[in-house]
Design goal:
Radius of gyration: 18 Å
Distance between the termini: 5 Å
Number of helices: 10
Number of strands: 14
Strand order of the largest sheet: 6-5-4-3-2-1-14
Structural class: alpha/beta
Strand content: 15-25%
Order of helices and strands: EHEEHEHEHHEEEEEHEHHHEHEE
Largest sheet: 7 strands, mixed
Helix content: 10-25%
Length: about 300
């Protein structure tokens, strides 16, 4: 399985247009220890020609431009053969509008996400007006049933419900349903090798930890260093866990759990621009490296 990190940041990217936090300010000043990052998305492939995209970031056009393996070879074509949505968050879905010239798209998501993207944030309904009918919907079950995507015939996919939060625009905000947030396990049918992708994670349930433990590569939510990071920076009145993100540090934090996992390669994704680990000169960055935890970056290539 080929895995390409298209975007490694949380919503807003780095630098965020209206943000002057230490990282955004440092990047604009040319600090070499801070990278440019676009909003969270990955794509995977079995053959290197046909790609399954996870989430459509608002930065999707820049991400495709920076990824020659996604460039068309025919007069009109797309290498993106399927799109999987793990939630209905704006920073994971808005880019679908930028892909309207490639309609219809084969879209995989839960019925809860499908509902949101037809009502509260009606991207699917809007795209029905483009040639080909917008999207072909494939429902993703949350009961542990696996499914297949035709362009990756040697792999199976399984959704894992997560406790996180519904989007801020949703009537289910602060009372999310089981299908509002999922992680995705991708398994090679021949070798049993597993990717576990979960860019949003609000509660470390035992079932999630068990799934992490048997993964070969773990791409996991690294949004915030501390639970009160947004409050301390003066950007929000909410804790990270209120927004659906387990902090990395502290008692009960993600690092504590990752330290108990021996098998997977541990890589953080969906990292907020305020997170000090994004500056490679910081103590927090060095601490993360000591724990043998990697930080994904735009353009990172992973292979299982």
């Amino acid at each position: 399985m080929k895995i390409e990190i298209l975007g490694s940041s949380a919503g807003g990217g780095l630098p965020q247009f209206n943000c002057n936090c230490d990282n955004c300010k440092g990047y604009r000043a040319g600090k070499p220890s801070i990278r440019r990052r676009t909003q969270s998305s990955i794509t995977i492939s079995e053959d290197g020609e046909n790609w399954v995209l996870f989430n459509t970031s608002p930065d999707i056009l820049e991400q495709i431009h920076n990824s020659p393996f996604l460039h068309p070879q025919q007069r009109r074509e797309t290498k993106i053969k399927a799109i999987v949505f793990i939630d209905a968050q704006i920073d994971h879905t808005t880019g679908l509008l930028m892909l309207r010239e490639g309609c219809p798209h084969e879209v995989y998501c839960t019925k809860e996400v499908h509902e949101e993207l037809n009502t509260s944030f009606p991207l699917f309904s809007m795209l029905e007006h483009w040639d080909g009918g917008g999207t072909h919907y494939h429902e993703v079950a949350t009961d542990g049933t696996s499914f297949e995507i035709p362009v990756m015939p040697n792999y199976s996919f399984k959704a894992v419900p997560l406790i996180s939060n519904a989007p801020p625009y949703s009537k289910y905000r602060d009372k999310p349903r089981a299908g509002d947030n999922i992680g995705m396990v991708v398994i090679n049918k021949q070798t049993g090798k597993r990717l576990f992708y979960l860019p949003g994670l609000g509660v470390l349930q035992q079932a999630i930890i068990d799934e992490m433990r048997i993964a070969d590569v773990l791409l996991v939510d690294g949004t915030l260093w501390t639970n009160d990071e947004m409050i301390q920076n003066g950007f929000s009145s909410k804790l990270g866990t209120d927004m659906g993100h387990v902090p990395l540090s502290g008692e009960g934090g993600l690092i504590e759990t990752l330290d108990t996992l021996e098998k997977p390669r541990k890589i953080l994704i969906h990292i907020n621009n305020t997170n000090p680990i994004l500056d490679e000169t910081t103590q927090e960055y060095r601490e993360l490296i000591r724990h043998n935890i990697e930080i994904s970056y735009d353009g990172m290539h992973i292979e299982i």
